[in-house]
Amino acid sequence: KKEPFYLYTGRGPSAEALHLGHCVPMLFTAWLQKAFDVPLVIQITDDEKYLYNPSYTWEETLRMRDNNIKDIIAFGFDPEKTFIFCDSEYIRQMYSNILKT
């Protein structure tokens, strides 16, 4: 009997766009999802990048996050089996306000 599994990866938005070094694992993950027909969870660590780099404003971090998500979607993951979430939004209103203080 085969045990069910899912794929899990993430991205910390620290640039406006993904580069080749980001593309290789995304392409491989897309291949794995298709080959095994499994769900995929992608975590966007916008909070971590904002807190780690004091030169980023919250607005810059959100812009990079949104642009990175668009790039990730372009890799062709199965939309029915892919869940992308952002740390700052998944915890809802309170966390975003805490990060700004």
Task: Describe this entry's structure for a reader.
With about 100 residues, the chain is an alpha/beta fold. It is about 50% helix and about 15% strand. The protein has helices at about 20-35, 45-50, 60-75, 85-90, 95-100, and strands at about 5-10, 40-45, 80-85. The chain has a three-stranded parallel β-sheet. Helix 1 (about 20-35) links the parallel strand 1 and strand 2. Helix 2 packs across helix 3. The mean pLDDT is about 90.
Radius of gyration: 15 Å
Number of strands: 3
User: What proportion of the residues is helical, as a percent range?
Assistant: 40-55%
Q: Which overall shape is indicated by the principal axes computed on the Cα atoms? A: globular
Contiguous uncertain segments of 5+ residues: none
Head-to-tail CA distance between termini: 51 Å
- Report the average pLDDT across residues: 91
Main sheet makeup = 3 strands, parallel
Structural class: alpha/beta
Strand order of the largest sheet: 1-2-3
Query: β content, as a range?
Result: 5-15%
Order of helices and strands: EHEHHEHH
Give the helix tally: 5
Summarize, please.
Helix content is 51%, strand content 15%.
Question: What is the strand and helix layout of this fold?
Answer:
Blueprint: E1 7-11, H1 20-36, E2 40-44, H2 46-52, H3 58-73, E3 82-86, H4 87-90, H5 93-100
Parallel strand pairs: 1-2, 2-3
Helix pairs in contact: 2-3
Quick tags:
single chain, 101 residues, alpha/beta, three-stranded parallel beta sheet, 3 strands, 51% helix, globular
